[in-house]
Design a protein that fits this description.
- This protein is of the alpha/beta class.
- It has helices spanning about 10-20, 30-40, 45-55, 60-70, 90-100, 115-120, 125-135, 150-165, 235-245, 270-280, 295-310, 315-330, 345-355, and strands at about 170-185, 205-220, 225-230, 255-260, 280-285.
- It has a 5-stranded mixed beta sheet with strand order 3-2-1-4-5.
- Helix 10 (about 270-280) links the parallel strand 4 (about 255-260) and strand 5.
- The longest helix is centred in the last third of the chain and has 17 residues, at about 315-330.
Length: about 350
Amino acid sequence: MGRTASTINLSEREREKLELMASRPKSSQREALRARVILTCAEGKMNKDVAVKLNITSQTVGKWKERFAADRLDGLVDAPRSGHPRTISDQKVEAILTKTLEGTPKEHTHWSRRTMAKEVGVGQDTVGRIWRTFGVKPHVVRGFKLSKDPMFAEKVRDIVGLYLNPSDKALVFSVDEKSQCQALERAQPVLPMDLGSPEHQTHDYVRHGTTSLFAALEVATGRVIGQCHARHRHQEFLKFLKHLDKQCPVVEGQTIHLIVDNYATHNTPAIRRWLARNGRFEIHFTPTSASWINQVERFFGLIPSQRIRRGSFRSVEELEDAIMRYIEAHNEGSKPFAWVATPEQIFEKLADSFS
């Protein structure tokens, strides 16, 4: 005679929970098996019958039956394991972090895993794990330039207001110039991409001169109006403003807002006189050292990677033609850049960065 399963009385909640555990996917089959053991024992079967039915040993049945009798559902959960004992003390961890944050190796600008491991006498992997745990990245450096503009907050509120909540008749353009676009001709023909092989191009090239792209990004649509000039003085900027004026149909009561940086050519007496005579334009200067707030800079970031850097141009004229055709293609499916940050969020983020 086999040993009979001791009586197990299940509450309605326990039965529901066990049935749920028993139907779990394969990733939790250990818990599912234990639940089926208890559910089968609750039917009053003998241990050996439970074992045969579930294809396990009688000892396994007895183990989980006793665990359930002692701790109910909690008894079916594996106790936390201690894991591999630590081989590095808290003092050593603190020493590594202190050295990382407060010093550098001799004649080096920053620590590497190798130099730190040699300094403190631990493995490189240990150093790496500690740095990852505490979010320390000695090899990473990010540039910044904090604006010292005394009107920083006022200018941010003004420009972000145009981005997020322009008036009904406002036409908002983000304006700037990308100077020194180089017409570089590769010394040898570019080898096109093939199956299993990327495009190849030589590192040496012939310089054919430069051009400057003046561009106005319409904030509401993402449309770009552009013009190339050999130089980027106030005379060329004035020519571009006149070109922009022609590209914008006259609408009664409409004001064209121009967001520009503090470059000297944007604020010469000649520019101010023309703006005053025209009457359609209102200019908004970005804070000093805050080009990130000018949306056209995002468009300027696309041109080198998508059109110029991997091109080969035999003349400045060829480069300018490629740039203008790129703008035309961009405008065919243009979409506005999404600006979501409020002035308060910008101020808060800046405060967190330098606190």
